[in-house]
């Protein structure tokens, strides 16, 4: 298991996000942040929750489908009411291959939480039906479920979504974070999604190493230019930008969930010097690591 990553109690410890699964249970307040490779869909019934996702506190209301990439450090920190939660964990390669609008896909890859504009009765019926079918453990049924989820998200990409109410942000002044270039219209299946998923995994497993674009290409046995272009076309950023982004995400996780010295965290996350770590962290979060730790603890 990757250092700093907390397994999800009550669910499969599938950190890389290779396995599709569905949970239906009571939500709980989490003591630590965690990450995993899925695109996650949450649906609260009879309660609402406050999450920290990528360093931002956001309110998720009841009866609204929330969609986000769980590769961002996230944690449920407060509950209002007693109810149930549907959790759907979609493997990244599946999500990337679905025929969704580029606007939706890049919003998710950019770390945004999306609240779907969908009818409660319709969604509740579908979710319960999917959960019941999933429990039958038939591969054919699970393939059908994924297909129906893809159609639901395509509908949402057309009908629209909203962002959750921001309870608190670590930096209301800073907008200098990683910028994804996903605002062009159109939709379609992403070619090479399997390769990109493999790249994402390789990067995640080697954040502490001085890896480069050439290393990523060599790992897949692909030409460097093809690797670079494919990754950028799917993810909206270069491999170099994404690598630094993931190092910052891991640093965020360790700052919040451990008492390790800041310098040690920076080096363990792959930064070559303390000054580079502070500069990158300040640029993305709008404050130095020490202030970030104090503000959210």
- Return Rg in Å: 19 Å
Gross geometry: globular
The share of residues in extended strands comes to 15-25%
- What fraction, in percent, of the residue positions are helical? 40-55%
Question: Which segments are poorly predicted (pLDDT under 50) over 5 or more consecutive residues?
Answer: 1-13, 169-189
Average pLDDT taken over every residue: 82
What topology, given as strand order, has the largest sheet?
1-7-2-5-9-10
Number of strands: 12
Order of helices and strands: EEEEEEEHEHEHHEEEHHHHHHH
The first-to-last residue Cα distance is 24 Å
Any overview of this molecule?
This protein has 11 helices and 12 strands. The chain is globular, with a radius of gyration of 19 Å. The protein starts with 20 loop residues before the first strand and ends with a helix. Mean pLDDT is 82; it is low at 1-13 and 169-189. By secondary structure, it is an alpha+beta fold. Helix 5 crosses helix 6 (213-220) and helix 6 (213-220) packs across helix 7 (224-235). The protein has helices at 92-97, 102-109, 120-135, 139-159, 193-205, 213-220, 224-235, 239-257, 262-268, 274-285, 289-296, and strands at 21-25, 39-45, 48-53, 56-60, 65-69, 74-80, 84-90, 100-101, 114-116, 161-162, 165-169, 187-188. Strand 3 (48-53) and strand 4 form a beta hairpin. The strands form 3 sheets. The chain has a 6-stranded antiparallel beta sheet.
């Amino acid at each position: 298991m990757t250092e700093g990553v907390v397994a999800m109690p009550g669910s499969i410890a599938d950190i890389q996000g290779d396995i599709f699964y569905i949970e239906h249970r009571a939500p709980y307040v989490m003591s630590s942040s965690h990450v995993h490779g899925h695109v996650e869909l949450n649906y609260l019934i009879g309660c609402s929750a406050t999450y920290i996702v990528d360093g931002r506190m956001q309110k998720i209301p009841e009866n609204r489908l929330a969609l986000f990439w769980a590769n961002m450090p996230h944690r449920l920190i407060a509950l209002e009411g007693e109810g149930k939660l549907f959790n759907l964990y979609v493997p990244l390669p599946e999500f990337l291959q679905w025929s969704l609008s580029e606007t939706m896909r890049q919003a998710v890859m950019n770390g945004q939480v999306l609240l779907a504009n969908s009818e409660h009765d319709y969604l509740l019926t579908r979710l319960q039906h999917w959960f019941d079918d999933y429990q039958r453990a038939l591969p054919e049924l699970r393939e059908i479920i994924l297909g129906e989820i893809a159609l639901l998200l395509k509908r949402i990409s057309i009908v629209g979504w909203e962002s959750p109410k921001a309870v608190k942000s670590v930096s209301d002044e800073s907008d200098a974070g990683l910028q994804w270039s996903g605002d062009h219209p159109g939709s379609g299946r992403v070619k090479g999604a399997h390769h990109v998923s493999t790249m994402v995994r390789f990067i995640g497993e080697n954040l502490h190493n001085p890896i480069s674009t050439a290393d990523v290409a060599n790992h897949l046995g692909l030409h460097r230019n093809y690797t670079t272009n494919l990754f950028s076309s799917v993810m909206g950023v270069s491999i170099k930008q994404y690598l630094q982004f993931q190092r910052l995400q891991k640093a965020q996780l360790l700052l919040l969930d451990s008492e390790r010295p800041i310098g040690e965290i920076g080096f363990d996350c792959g930064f070559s010097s303390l000054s580079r770590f502070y500069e990158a962290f300040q640029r993305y979060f709008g404050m130095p690591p020490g202030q970030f730790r104090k503000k959210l603890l």
